[in-house]
Predict the 3D structure of the following.
Amino acid sequence: MPETSTSSSSSTFIIGLDYGTGSARGVLIDAATGDLIARKSADYAHGTYDEVGPDGSRLPSDWALQDGDDWLHAAETILSALASAVPAGGKVAGIGVDATASTPLPTLADGTPLSRRFPSAPHAYAKLWKHHGAQPWADRIEELAPACLARTGGRTSCEWLPSKAGEIADNAPDLWAATERFIECGDWLVWQFTGHERRSICQAGYKAHWTEDDGFPDILDTIAPGLRDRLAPPLPVGTAAGTLTPEWVARTSLPNAPTVAVATIDAHAAVPAVGVSETGTLVGSLGTSSCYLLMADRMEPAPGIAGVVKDGIMPGSWGYESGQAAFGDILSWFVRTFCAGEAPAAAFERLNAEAATIAPAGTGLLTLDWHNGCRTPLVDPALSGAVIGLTLQTRPVDLYRALMEGICLGARRIVEVLEDSGLPVHRLVITSGLAEKNPLLLTILTDIMNRPVVVPDAPEATARGAAIHGAVASGCYTDFPAAVAALGRRAGRSLEPDPSAAARYETLYGLYRQEADAKGGGDMMRQLRALRQ
């Protein structure tokens, strides 16, 4: 059964589906008031293949795969539960979908996942966003086609669709020959729900170097022969992809066939959810990784920015994406590694209470937040985390606190990159899981940023944002500003920095910049990684 939150007398609702790294979530929203009526989550049956592949073989350490059929089972579970929460006589006007990216799936021409035909072949499965096995192909793109990388500071990523296509084409040419479509998770789900292949400029622009003027660049076919023919032209966000098929209506018992919007990237969906439709407000979505979204009225090249796409977040502005490849993942790693035998929730509660007694920058430690590589500003997955200052007096809680400070120092670096590129950040809004669950982390972030931080009361923010996409696509609202004004959530709390803490962190941030700049070349880190592998 779904978790219900608020009763409603309205007869029209919208649904948002949010596909994260480990599970999917869905919300049922009152289309008139924005009230959260019900929510439901579902884990992926096979989780992530990151150690052992679907055939039982050992995977390389930098791999991460998922089974597309798990996404469909999760959708059926969630939609069925939300359907049961629709009041008698009510209807669902629209469904929006967000998902991790770049998480591309090889399929046949009709959308059938290649993994159904080749269940023992790892390359036949979706390559999750944090799959880093495609770095050699990212290097090749940078070598051969620097001109098409102007909007990403001259860099591309092994996490993005072109690099992952090249990895399949070179390492499993028979599978690439059988691949007739190569499609992002969110776009593929929309295809399954509607029966129509409808892609989004959000995934295409940020994860495949598509631009509104030139389309997909020629380098894609150089890296993976015929790749551009496997990619359909993308559509603007907020566009209707079609209506839910009769099969899906029957499978889920929804009262009608809602309009389904083209997909968006999960972190991008948080922007409308927290009531933001204006330029100059940076929205930080803090989860296993972090993503920072900024809308601006112009295009400015910024080093290490994951992409800048016209109309990519919402129509009418340039959308900038940046982030950290590991955020909450770093804290989860610490608990798994150093708190064995203790329930994770209890360990986090204990550590946060102990860490709160330590003065800002008072551990004597400095950490680099590159445990899963550096996304912004270096775009280098070969980099690794570092701890400086360990002594015989260092306690586990000191390291935990230092890790929290390290990920917040990395977040400040991103704000600095944007502003140094001529993109002012007037307001900082933080949302998603860690914003809701870890008040100490928010305090540290506010003091390190040394600026106010707004935390809206927006549970399930990314799913709510997806629902807003569904509301625009279905015509419940004429455009995003109207939908955001009605359905977004601005109310919450505003945190102010503590001047004394901010002053101490100013010194720590200077040390962070010094160490990050020195380690940015990564030669030692790459050699250590090679020894481990």
